[in-house]
Write a sequence for this structure.
């Protein structure tokens, strides 16, 4: 529950004004509803009493009937405003939550961001964030509004009818639904978790079944895997049935709470009226208000269904949510300059007590020099680049930049000087220019064209409609080789002292690859290049070659 | 379990289901409770003393009955919904298990989404919208008739307000619909946008682009919020119209009842004036005339979501795909001699027919299938494994024709190395042996033991999501180990050395040659000269193609 409360508080603090507006209007709607029914009940009963007493002519009908009309119209209009205000608050919170998630994720260690590349993990995060969307609209706002409306209505009943009836309404409507909510939550917790776990298993196993269908068929495993899907499905059904039962019982209890309060106000009102303590019309107010307030507690059932999911989601997402939102200050001063990158007796182990991945390594890359790392796949070339970028620390030895150890340098300082282009290219949905300006927000169009020219991509971009050509999700719309070159152009815009390239020309034909390598050097004459080389065209572009020898077979 | 939805019936059936009827019955208790309250209050006015305790108790007993009926109805509805969902899910799993080729719906992820959370969207549709529709067709009529019994004037008010509501809602809703549909797409787009950014975050941080990414997302998100609010301003109008009419209807009845009771209005009833009971009763009933309409409006979104899912299900169902040969289960090993033949085989592929030449492959030989990419080499391997059904002609195994009867037994003798394997979300060990013990010998022959030793959890390392954690070369050797594991008589390998560096390729080739040297029949589809030169036979695959007009 605590992570959920924290997220709720975070949302509240960030959007206090819109939340308060939504809350105020929600309370107003509930109160007007109670007032409308209460007033109508009083009006009719009092009118009947006056009619029976033959005093119909002197009864003031105009003020109450005008009030009834006013409340009816006012409530409708307020309801409209309330809907807009609470949805506005929710949308703000929803967008704020996503932004905080991005910011929070940016502050995590590199290792944990890498997990985000896996689709299953991404889907998980998305499902959690979606679950939290209902936090304001279904839990926080209705809960606070319902409570406030009940208390205020109780106050009015105390003054207008009798303290006893006010006490029945407040006590019944506050403690009854609260008890239903918390007891229900306890019983719903386990089946809700089981149902979600079973649903995840169902998805994963079905994906396995379909994606590996041919392999499974050849190995005679198709029926077995299909049965695994069936088992997950059965587990989901069982958990879901239990969850439904809890929800049903909560709904039943909630109905009874409302009816018990109404029955009590009816009984108490009749007793008091028999004793002439209150008039029949006042007794009617109590009953009608009790009926109207059922609306204030109705959201409990829906909230119960979703709170379990929200609690779990909050537990998982909370660590990645940024607490405060400092606008990540990053208008990047572009320190040029040059420095030598040096590896001094470096070793790397994947875990404690494991043998090193490659033989001890010492080399340096001077400004303007190109060094190629060669070696079989899995020998650790990418690992070396990650160490040079400060994303991994060597197990022993030191990586230095201009004589200063990279270890312990802040991300910002390092990123000003070192740029790594990993094997997988990360483009985002948006225009070509947007993708490029991620690296250099202040770059002019001319600078962008220069960078594109350096990687022989300018003509391609021109054909696609220039810098404003739109790319789909993850850079959809460009071929593999084109995406690769766009990532390289982005790196050129950083004007780094050290440029680390992981198999930079993968997917390019030999002629293009050679011209890209030459273009990069021409665009960044003073930069030290370190590349994990796979192809002869990359090795040919290097001044020196460092062979990485794999130790792990 | 409910039998209300039989296998062939469509989804209209639950409309007359027991669950909906029970929910209607629960709603019909309210007039009785209202009469009780009205009678008690009227009694107070007219000096009829009734025991407050008995009145309250009677009201509460009716309430228990009402809540009980409602709970029962929900239980029934929930069972029916579960039954429908289970049936649709099972249908999807069963058919996908033995289908071949891709679905029109999309890849495995899209199908899993359909079977998972999308089908779940049917639940509120079946549980909320359907019973609401039943109530809306009965309750207002009942309340109208009761009202008419006491006062024609009130009945006229209800009659005027009631039918106007759907009309106005339709008008406003119609204007909002188009806008809100676009909106749904955009809200989905915001999620996609977040995934897009999150997936790229690692690399973007490496180029110091963290800040700009957050800012651009913030910008997109903010503009989406503004557009959403613009749409909601119209969309909420339709429910406001509904509430306006119901509020005005109730207020008009309250005012009319008040004036009648005071004796200031003499018309609107059948002769004699309105008594206090009737007045209070009518007031209590009036809101419930509109309630079913409001329930239906609230469930409108469930309907749209539910029907979209049913449409998608139907699209999937209409997509006829060939079934694989056999059923893919474990079977008794087929006992005939290993000799493979192709006789006049024609394979339908999208809008083309591939006409293969007749081919014979003898036991214990090494055969390379070569040809341009896309020539049909992979399809030939799939034909030999019974994973594709020839449109004409026969695949011979020994002297039998490969058919549903012997395909599973034949496959029990095969090893299979696909070019792009999908590993199950299970341990590495399970991915090699499928639950059977894996011997060190197998791992040695596939040259994979070193790789396993270097993994943090050894052969218990979890795979999945396209072999996360394994490089291309490692994944290839895992598929080799899996193929060798069952000591197959025939090994079919698709481009076993593609995209591998020389060192790793050599390891894979040696593993394959060792297998052939022990008497296995090896069939590889390949471009790789290093591999081709070590084979006994080279068969060029260049099937004739014939366009098929759809």
């Amino acid at each position: 529950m605590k992570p959920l409360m924290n997220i709720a508080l975070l949302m509240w603090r960030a959007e206090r004004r819109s939340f308060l507006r939504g809350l105020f209007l929600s309370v107003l709607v509930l109160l007007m509803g109670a007032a409308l029914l209460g007033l109508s009940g009083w009006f009719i009963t009092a009118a009947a009493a006056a009619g029976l007493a033959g005093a119909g002519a002197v009864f003031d009908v105009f003020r109450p009937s005008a009030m009834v009309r006013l409340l009816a119209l006012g409530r409708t209009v307020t309801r409209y405003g309330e809907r807009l205000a609470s949805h506005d608050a929710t949308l703000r919170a929803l967008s704020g939550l996503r932004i905080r998630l991005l910011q929070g994720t940016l502050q995590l260690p590199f290792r944990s961001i890498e997990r985000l590349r896996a689709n299953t993990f991404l889907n998980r995060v998305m499902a959690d964030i979606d679950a939290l969307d209902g936090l304001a609209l279904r839990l926080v706002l209705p809960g606070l509004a319902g409570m406030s409306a009940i208390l205020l209505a109780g106050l009015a009943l105390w003054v207008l009818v009798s303290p006893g009836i006010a006490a029945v309404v407040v006590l019944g409507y506050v403690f009854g639904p609260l008890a239903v909510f918390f007891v229900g939550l306890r019983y719903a917790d386990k089946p809700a978790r089981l149902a979600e776990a079973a649903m995840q298993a169902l998805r994963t196993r079905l994906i396995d079944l379909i994606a590996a269908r041919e392999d499974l068929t050849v190995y005679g495993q198709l029926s077995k895997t299909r049965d695994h899907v069936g088992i997950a499905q059965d587990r989901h059904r069982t958990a879901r049935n239990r969850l439904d039962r809890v929800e049903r019982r909560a709904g039943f209890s909630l109905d009874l709470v409302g009816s018990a309060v109404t029955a009590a106000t009816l009984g108490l009102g009749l007793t008091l009226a028999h004793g002439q303590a209150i008039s029949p019309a006042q007794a009617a107010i109590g009953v009608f208000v009790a009926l109207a307030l059922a609306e204030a507690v109705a959201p409990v059932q829906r909230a119960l269904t979703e709170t379990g999911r929200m609690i779990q989601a909050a537990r998982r997402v909370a660590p990645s949510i940024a607490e405060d939102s400092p606008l990540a200050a990053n208008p990047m001063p572009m320190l040029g300059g040059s420095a030598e990158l040096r590896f001094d007796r470096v070793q790397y182990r994947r875990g404690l007590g494991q043998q090193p991945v490659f033989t001890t390594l010492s080399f340096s890359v001077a400004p303007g020099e190109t060094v190629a790392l060669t070696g079989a796949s899995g020998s650790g070339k990418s690992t070396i680049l990650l160490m040079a970028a400060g994303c991994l620390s060597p197990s022993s030895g030191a990586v230095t930049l201009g004589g200063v150890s990279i270890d312990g340098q802040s991300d910002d300082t390092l990123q000003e000087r070192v740029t790594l282009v990993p094997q997988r290219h990360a483009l985002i949905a948006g225009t070509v220019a947007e993708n490029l300006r991620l690296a250099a927000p202040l770059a002019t169009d001319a600078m962008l064209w220069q960078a594109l020219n350096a990687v022989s991509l300018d003509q391609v971009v021109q054909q696609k409609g220039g810098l404003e050509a739109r790319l789909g999700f993850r850079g959809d719309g460009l071929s593999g080789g084109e995406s690769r070159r766009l990532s390289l152009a982005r790196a050129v815009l950083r004007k780094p002292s050290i440029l680390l390239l992981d198999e930079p020309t993968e997917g390019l034909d030999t002629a293009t690859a050679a011209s890209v390598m030459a273009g990069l050097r021409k665009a960044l004459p003073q930069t030290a290049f370190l590349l994990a080389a796979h192809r002869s065209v990359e090795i040919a572009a290097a001044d020196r070659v460092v062979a990485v020898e794999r130790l792990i077979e | 379990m409910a039998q209300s939805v039989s296998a062939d019936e469509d989804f209209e059936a639950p409309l007359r289901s027991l669950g909906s009827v029970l929910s209607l019955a629960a709603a019909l208790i309210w007039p009785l409770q209202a009469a009780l309250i009205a009678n008690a209050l009227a009694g107070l006015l007219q000096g009829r003393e009734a025991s407050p305790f008995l009145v309250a108790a009677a009201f509460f007993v009716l309430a228990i009955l009402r809540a009980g009926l409602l709970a029962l109805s929900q239980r029934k509805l929930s069972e029916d919904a579960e039954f429908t969902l289970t049936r649709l899910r099972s249908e999807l799993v069963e058919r996908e298990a033995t289908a071949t080729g891709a679905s029109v719906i999309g890849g495995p992820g899209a199908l899993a989404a359909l079977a998972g959370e999308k089908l779940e969207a049917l639940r509120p549709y079946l549980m909320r919208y359907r019973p609401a529709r039943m109530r809306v067709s009965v309750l207002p009529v009942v309340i109208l008739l009761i009202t008419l019994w006491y006062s024609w004037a009130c009945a006229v008010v209800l009659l005027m307000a009631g039918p106007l509501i759907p009309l106005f809602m339709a008008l406003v809703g119609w204007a909002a619909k188009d806008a809100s549909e676009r909106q749904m797409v955009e809200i989905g787009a915001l999620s996609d946008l977040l995934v897009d950014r999150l997936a790229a975050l690692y690399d973007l941080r490496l180029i110091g682009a963290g800040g700009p990414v957050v800012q651009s997302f913030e910008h997109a998100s903010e503009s989406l919020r503004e557009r959403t609010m613009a749409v909601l301003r119209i969309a909420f109008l339709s429910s406001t119209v509904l509430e306006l009419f119901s509020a005005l209807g109730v207020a008009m009845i309250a005012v009319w009842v008040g004036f009648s009771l005071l004796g200031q209005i003499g018309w609107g009833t059948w002769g004699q004036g309105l008594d206090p009971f009737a007045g209070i009763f009518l007031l209590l009933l009036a809101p419930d005339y509109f309630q079913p309409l409001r329930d239906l409006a609230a469930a409108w979104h469930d309907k749209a979501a539910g029907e979209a899912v049913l449409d998608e299900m139907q699209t999937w169902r209409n997509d006829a795909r060939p079934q694989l040969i056999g059923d893919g289960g474990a079977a008794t090993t087929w006992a005939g001699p290993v000799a493979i033949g192709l006789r006049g085989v024609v394979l339908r592929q999208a809008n083309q027919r591939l006409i293969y030449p007749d081919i014979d492959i003898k036991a214990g030989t090494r055969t390379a299938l070569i040809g341009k990419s896309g020539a049909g080499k992979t399809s030939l391997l799939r034909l030999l494994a019974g994973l594709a059904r020839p449109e004409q002609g026969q695949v011979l195994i020994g002297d039998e024709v490969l058919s549903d009867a012997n395909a599973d037994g034949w496959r029990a003798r095969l090893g299979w190395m696909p070019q792009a394997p999908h590993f199950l979300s299970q341990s590495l060990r399970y991915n090699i042996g499928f639950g059977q013990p894996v011997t060190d010998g197998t791992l040695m022959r596939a040259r994979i033991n070193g790789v396993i030793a270097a993994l943090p959890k050894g052969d218990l390392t979890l795979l999945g999501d396209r072999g996360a954690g394994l490089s291309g070369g490692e994944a290839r050797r895992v598929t080799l180990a899996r193929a060798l594991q069952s000591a197959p008589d025939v090994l079919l390998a698709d481009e076993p050395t593609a995209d591998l560096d020389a060192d790793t390729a050599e390891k894979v080739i040696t593993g394959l040659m060792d297998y052939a040297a022990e008497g296995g029949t090896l069939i590889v589809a390949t471009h790789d000269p290093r591999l081709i030169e070590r084979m006994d036979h080279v068969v060029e695959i260049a099937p004739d193609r014939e366009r098929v007009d759809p």
